[in-house]
Amino acid sequence: MAKTSRVPEPALECVAARKRYGDRTALADATFSCPAGAVTALIGPNGAGKSTFFRSAAGLITLDAGRILVNGHEAGSPPAQRGTSLMPEQPDLYPGVSVWEHIVFVALLYKLERWRPAAGQLLDRFGLADRRDTLSHELSQGMRRRLALVMAMLRGAEMLLLDEPFNGLDPRNSAELRALVRELALDGAGVLVATHILGDVVRLADRVVILVSGRVIAQGTLAELREQAGLPAEADLERTYLALTDTHALTRLEDAS
Ligand code: ADP
Questions:
Q1: What does the pLDDT look like over 79-112, one tens digit per residue?
Q2: Starting from the edge strand earliest in sequence, which strands make up the sheet with 159-163, in order?
Q3: Per-residue confidence at 157, pLDDT binned at 50, 70, 90?
Q4: 52 lines ligand 1 (CB under 6 A)
Q5: Cα(159)–Cα(185) distance, rounded to whole angstroms?
Q6: Which of 35, 36, 53, 120 has the fewest Cβ atoms within 10 angstroms?
Q7: Which ligand 1 atom sits nearest the alpha carbon of residue 55?
Q8: Is 135 helix (H, G, I), strand (E, B) or coil?
Q9: Residue 56: CB within 6 Å of ligand 1?
Q10: Does the CB atom of residue 24 touch ligand 1 within 6 A?
Q11: Is the CB of 48 under 6 A from ligand 1?
Q12: Inter-residue contact 87 to 165 (CB < 8 Å)
């Protein structure tokens, strides 16, 4: 993990986002940003509001208050929709439809021009070149996620939202997907990854956002989070996460706000 904060343009900004479902609060004035060209990890307990945030950023649901901007465009607006790609834990692929047909579908849907060479290169880069004719339901889970990333890259998504991308992958597939995600960030994309696997966060992310009960309780590099938790330099992410999400720490935060 990087030791200092980077200060590139934010690819995504979430400002005081609020969302309730009936009397249940999913997002409570959540504020954070994801820089372009970097991987940000979104971590927090189940029910923290991560999926609600992803769905709002992808324009699938609307916030009650606050705003989410993707490259300066309001989430849900056509330019934001075009620039954002949400990859759910189970990517939305069509069963009985081949890898190449998925690519053609994206090209037609987004009215892409001269897309074939780029598609060929992406399939090659993502290890799917010899799978063009394979039907999506015959792909392994790792391949399904790689195809979903190829589709996002082909249409030029600048902000990738990856929900638990490493769940169910074997160590090799997981390592390969991590390397690809890093490459996409190096190419300039903003990447936000929700995961429960803290080891993946350490290996992959430049920054971490911790969401608890719909509120961002901490964000920054591991070094910055450690400092916020008042822990020594040798404290790892698990210890830092546990300290920051400790009931007493949260109560102190509540008292101070
Ligand atoms: P996470 O992805 O971090 O597990 P969610 O965004 O799924 O969190 O959920 C945040 C809160 O909102 C939880 O209390 C959850 O029960 C509630 N919630 C999420 N979706 C709905 C829904 N469609 N209807 C009612 N409550 C919901």
A1: 998 899 998 888 889 999 999 999 999 999 989 9
A2: 84-87, 159-163, 190-194, 38-43, 207-212, 215-220
A3: confident
A4: yes
A5: 9
A6: 120
A7: 6
A8: strand
A9: no
A10: yes
A11: yes
A12: yes
Buried b (16+ CB within 10 A) or exposed e, 189-216: bbbbbbbebbebbeebbbbbbbbbbbbb
Q: Are strands 207-212 and 215-220 parallel, antiparallel or unpaired?
A: antiparallel
DSSP state letters, 55-108: HHHTTSS--SEEEEEETTEETTSHHHHHHEEEE-SS----TT-BHHHHHHHHHH
Question: What does the chain come to in residues?
Answer: 257
Place of tokens 């834990």: 89
**Ligand 1 pocket member 46 (CB < 6 A):** yes
**Ligand 1 mutation target, pool 46, 52, 64, 209, most atoms within 8 A of CB:** 52
First to last CA, the chain: 30
pLDDT band at 2; cut points 50, 70, 90: very low
| pLDDT 10s digits, 34-48 | 999 999 999 999 999
CA angle 250, 38, 237 (to 5 degrees): 35
Angle at CA of residue 184, ends 143 and 166, nearest 5°? 45
Cα–Cα distance for residue pair 68/225, rounded to 1 Å: 23
Quick check: CB of 257 below 6 Å from ligand 1? Answer: no
Cα dihedral 89/92/94/95 (nearest 10): 20
> Looking at ligand 1, which residue's alpha carbon is closest to its atom 21?
21
The rounded Å distance from CA 24 to ligand 1 centre is 8
- Measure the CA–CA gap between 6 and 15, rounded to whole angstroms: 19
